Task: structure prediction
Amino acid sequence: MTKLAIIGGGNMGEALLAGMLAGPDPTFTAADVVVVELAEERAAYLRERYGVATAEAGPAIRSAGTVLLTVKPYHVDDLFTAVADDVNDEQLFVSAVGGVRIARLEALLPGKPAVVRCMPNTPVSVGRGLVAISAGTYAGDAELDRAQAMFDPVGKVVRVEESRMDAITALSGSGPAYYFFLTEALIEAGILLGLPRPLAEELVKTNAAGAAEMLQQPGADPVRMRAAVTSPGGATIAAIRQFEERGVRAAVMTAIEAARDRASEMGR
Result:
C-alpha cells in the first residue's frame, strides 16, 4: 500500500511535497508517495524532480493510507463522485483545499471518513512554513497526530478549531504574498532612489531575512523592535510618519479582513 497519495500537483501540492521529502526527518520518502496530476507535462516534471510515482485518482486513492487533497475547490465534488468506490474506512483524508469546510468533505465521502482540514502556506517548500490543522467529526487525536507527523518536516504545526480557519487563511495562508508585495515595493523604492536593481534587491532581501530571524528570538516584540530603530528626528521616523499619514496600518487591517471574508465566501 502507498503511504501517501497527493491529489493535485499544482503549486501547493508541490510545495508540500518538496518540504516533506527534504526535511531532516521526513515522514515519507519518494517511494512512499504517488501524485495525481492530470496535466502530463506537469506529472512528468514531478516524477523527474522528486522521484515520485504518478497515477490516476482511483488507483492512487485506493492504494493509499493517507490522502492529501490539494485540488481547486471546484474540483472536489466531481473528484469524490468519481472515486467513491475507492475509499475505505481506514484512510485519513487531509484537505488543503482552500475554503472547503470539513462538513462538506464528510458529506461527499462514503461512510464515516476521518478528515483533517489544514491550511499551509508556501514556505513549507523550504521547511519554514506554518500548517494549521483541524479535526473533523470522525477524526480524533490519533488522526491529528498522523497529520502533524506528516507536516512536522515542513515547519510549524498548530492545532486550531475549524471556526478559526478563515482568519488563518487570510493571515497565514495568504501571508507570504503580503511580504512579497512589500518586498517588491521596497526594491522599487530603492531603484527610484538611484540604486542599481541588484543592490536594491540584496539590501531588501537581506533586511527581510535578518528581521525575520530577530522576530523568532524569545520575547521578540515588533513594537519595541520597531521603536529601537526609530530615533527621534531621524530618517526612520520620517518614513514611519508617511506610512501612518497614508493609512498603511489601516489598509493592512482592511486587506486582511477582505481576505478573511473571501475565504468565508469560498467555503459557502
Q: What stands out?
A: Residues 135 and 144 are 7 Å apart (CA to CA). Residues 248-267 form the longest helix (20 residues).
